[in-house]
Write a structure and sequence with these properties.
Elements lengths: L5 H7 L9 E11 L23 E3 L5 E5 L6 H18 L4 E2 L23 H17 L9 E6 L3 H5 L6 H19 L1 H7 L4 E3 L12 E4 L2 E3 L17 H4 L8 H13 L3 H6 L2 E2 L2 E2 L17 E4 L8 H8 L3 E7 L11 H16 L12 H13 L6 E4 L2 E4 H23 L3 H14 L5 H12 L3 H17 L5 H24 L4 H10 L7
Antiparallel strand pairs: 1-3, 1-4, 1-5, 2-3, 5-12, 6-8, 7-8, 9-10, 11-12, 13-14
Helix pairs in contact: 5-11, 6-12, 11-13, 11-14, 13-14
Length: 523
């Protein structure tokens, strides 16, 4: 059963436009050694320069690879590119592996987790010092958590058809902010369906004595009904400064105003740290967040930026260009961390969020129920009889989830019809089965596999990572594709060298100019 709406009816009358939907992926993975311990080696030169390579870079740690696709008009071409990049990387890593789990591998002491290095250019040093600041504020271990980011945009003409008002830029920004509001309402469903981090290695908790985790085996802690500890307060959500930062998705102007406040307002604990230690930079400034990307949200409005351009400035000047979904865990059962069915469902889900009515949030733009539902599902999503709150009324997760999937199914049908395939409908049926039987969810499967195998999370993930690496290496790239990747690596190294040679001001002056672009006083 599917339920149509005005937005669905409009799209059904304009099917060719759906072929213009674009999607991209940024997939993070830790490099580990043969024992599954965090790699302590530099970023491999055969992968190019992390600062300037378009498709292979690093995130927080020198060992946290980030593989970036281009934008694609189909999920098939998207995942083909991601697979090719994984095959190239796997072949270049020697005895190292890509860790196929969102929660970190065996980590060394805090001091020995290597922060990503981007060379000596001002641009590279800005990225490095920003990461030093993250270490001061959140710990290095937390920054080693990995995920899959899903980028999504619709053709510009769609926003006018869906009734957005204003000029092209205004319609686009209002449309994406409406999408984000619906995403905020319903993203708990993604955590139930795709959350794959219900457990952590005991070593990740370090010496924490106060936590609610239960012992699964001597080396593994878990919550019995959790879906994604990565997205719980054990991971990205555990920070007082960020917890008090409530951005508003009712309109872009208010969102940017609150983001501006966050990047320009000092936070006492960070002021106590300061920006320098022993004559070296340790954070870019002492504000609530150093730069816009420090805000840990499950979705972001995005706009491509130029070199040294601040995201907030780009959004203010040119509006929202696409959205970035940041809450997907790495799929431990896929060599590339995401399955075709997940990508199909993400398209249908995000199209549903874009086309359905999206009322403004009350309470100064912050939806308490949406936030609470999300937090509940990441920790207890598979708990029998779990109840969520939908606009003030109590409803079981299974009932609400099935209602949503039935509505999303209508958009899956539109995508199948527009693109001449059946993959979207197949993805819907798979998610329906998960709602009927929680044992089919990735989080439940992982816990069952740990119990059945008798392996710890670490040993199980190491085995999975080895098997995935072998599968990728068993399908080597053709010679021409191999040469293209090698050429891109060499070119990126040359581009980084050119940046380093082209700087005309010292780093202190560069940071001052970067901060003052938003009115941040020089430290």
């Amino acid at each position: 059963m599917t339920l149509s709406s005005a937005g669905h009816t409009t799209l059904a009358r304009n099917l060719p436009l759906l072929r213009g939907i674009l999607r991209g992926i940024e997939k993070e993975s830790l490099r580990v050694d043969v024992q599954g311990a965090l790699a302590r080696t530099p970023h491999p030169p055969q992968l190019g320069a992390a600062l300037t390579h378009e498709h292979i870079t690093t995130d927080y740690s020198e060992a946290l690879l980030e593989l970036i696709t281009g934008t694609h008009d189909s999920t098939e071409s998207l995942l083909r590119e991601l697979t090719r990049t994984h095959r190239y990387v796997a072949a270049q890593l020697g005895n190292e592996l890509l860790w196929n789990q969102s929660m970190p591998a065996l980590l060394p002491s805090e001091a020995d987790i290597p922060i990503a290095w981007y060379g000596t250019s001002n641009t590279g040093m800005l990225k490095h010092v920003y990461r030093r600041g993250l270490a001061e504020r959140y710990s290095k271990a937390m920054q080693c958590i990995a995920g899959v980011h899903y980028n999504f945009s619709v053709p510009e003409a769609l926003w006018a058809l869906l009734g957005m008002k204003g000029d092209d830029t205004q319609r686009r920004s209002r449309g994406y902010m409406a999408l984000i509001r619906n995403f905020s309402r319903y993203s708990w469903l993604l955590m139930y369906l795709f959350g794959a981090s219900p457990a952590v290695s005991r070593s990740f908790m370090r010496n924490a004595s106060r936590h609610a985790l239960e012992t699964l085996d001597p080396d593994t802690l878990h919550l019995p009904y959790a879906t994604s500890l990565r997205m719980s307060d054990l991971g990205y959500q555990n920070n007082k400064a960020q917890a008090e930062l409530q951005l508003c998705y009712n309109d872009l102007e208010t969102f940017l105003a609150r983001m501006y406040t966050a990047v320009t307002t000092p936070w006492p604990a960070y002021e106590a740290i300061g920006t320098h230690r022993n004559g070296e930079w340790i954070q870019l400034n002492t504000n609530i967040i150093q730069i816009e990307n420090e805000y840990y949200s499950s979705i972001r409005p995005k706009r491509t930026t130029g070199r040294c351009e601040r995201p907030i400035s780009a959004l203010a000047e040119r509006g929202v260009q696409y959205i970035e979904v940041r809450c997907l865990d790495i799929d431990p059962y896929s060599p590339i961390g995401i399955s075709t069915q997940t990508a199909h469902f993400m398209d249908a889900f995000l199209l549903f969020c874009a086309a359905e009515d999206s009322a403004l949030f009350p309470d100064n733009g912050f939806c308490v129920n949406s936030h609470s539902n999300f937090k509940t599902v990441v920790k207890e999503g598979r708990k029998p009889g779990l109840v969520l709150i939908d606009e003030g009324r109590s409803i079981s997760l299974q009932d609400w989830g099935m209602q949503l999937v039935n509505r999303i199914a209508g958009y899956a049908t539109l995508l199948d019809n527009a693109l001449g395939e059946t993959g979207y409908g197949d993805a819907i049926e798979t998610q329906r089965k998960k709602l009927c039987d929680s044992a089919l969810t990735p989080s439940a499967r992982l816990l069952a596999d740990l119990r059945d195998s008798g392996l710890s999370l670490h040993d199980f993930t190491l085995r999975q990572s080895q098997e995935h690496s072998a599968a990728l290496k068993a399908q080597p790239l053709d010679p021409e594709t191999q040469r293209q990747y090698a050429r891109a690596a060499r070119d990126s190294i040359s581009q980084q060298a050119a940046l380093e040679a082209g700087d005309t001001i010292d780093f202190d002056g560069y940071v001052a100019r970067y901060n003052q672009a938003l009115g941040i006083p020089r430290p």
